[in-house]
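Dear support,

Our group has been running a series of protein-ligand predictions, and this particular one with 9D3 is the one our PI (initials K.S.) wants archived with full inputs and outputs. We had some confusion internally about which version of the output was final, so please treat the block below as the authoritative record. The input we submitted was:
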Amino acid sequence: MYIDVLTIFPEMVKLLSQWGILSRAIQGGHLNLRAINIRDFTTDKRRSTDDAPYGGGPGMVMKPEPVVKAIEYAKREREKGTAILMTPQGRRFTQEMAHLLSTHPHLILVCGRYEGIDERIRHFVDEEISIGDYVLTGGELPAFVLIDAVVRLIPGVLGNESSTREESFSTGLLEYPQYTRPQIFRDLPVPEILLSGHHKKIQEWRRQMAIQRTQERHPDLYKRYFHHHLDKEK
Ligand code: 9D3
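Confirmed final output from the archive:
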C-alpha cells in the first residue's frame, strides 16, 4: 500500500517510519510511506501556506492552492488514490473504516494546521475523517492514528493472522484480562483457573470476563454484541 502524508511538517512522518510494526511493514515492502511537503507547492517568495481569513476574525487559514496542487501531484503519480482530509468535522474514524481503507492501494492523507483550512479544499478530497471529539493542533497525529490502525490490517504485516481476527472490536467484545509471570506480583495473584491447564474452562472463563468487562465499560458495544448473539447463547 502507498500512503502519502501531505503536511507542512514532513519531519514528523520520518519519526513514524522508524519504529515497531510500521518500520517492519516498510522494510517488508507492505507499505510505501511518503511525506509530501505542502510548502513545496507554494509559488510566492515567502513560501506561505496560510493567510488571513476573508471577513476578518482571529487566526490564519490554510491557503487552497498549495494543498490542492499537492493532492493533484500525489494523484497524478498513481492509478487510483483516495484523498482523505483529516478534519475535526469529518466522519468519526472506526475499526470498520480501518478495515475498508486497508484494501485501498493508495491513500493520500491531507493534514491541516492553523485555525482552519480554506473551505474549497473540500472539493478536492474523497473523504473527511476525524479521530474523535477533542481539539488537537493539526491533522498529523490523526493521520498517524489512521495509518497505525490501517497498516496493521494489511495481510502479512502482523505475521500472526489470527490475532487480528480474535481481538476486541472484531469479536465485538473488549479483551479478557491477561497475566504473565510472576505468579504473585505485589500480593496480587494470577487467577487460579489460568494455572489449571483446563483449556476448555480457561476459554469459557476468558469469554465470561470479556462479556462482563464489556458490559461494565462499554455498554454500547455490549448492546450490539448482545443483540447479535441472542440466538446462539444460552
Ligand atoms: C481552534 C480552531 N477550532 C475552532 C474551534 C477549529 C479547529 C481547527 C483545526 C480545531 C482543531 C484543528 C486541528 N485539528 C485537526 O486538524 C484534526 C483533528 C482534531 O483536532 N481532533 C480530532 N480529529 C482530528 S482530524 C484533524
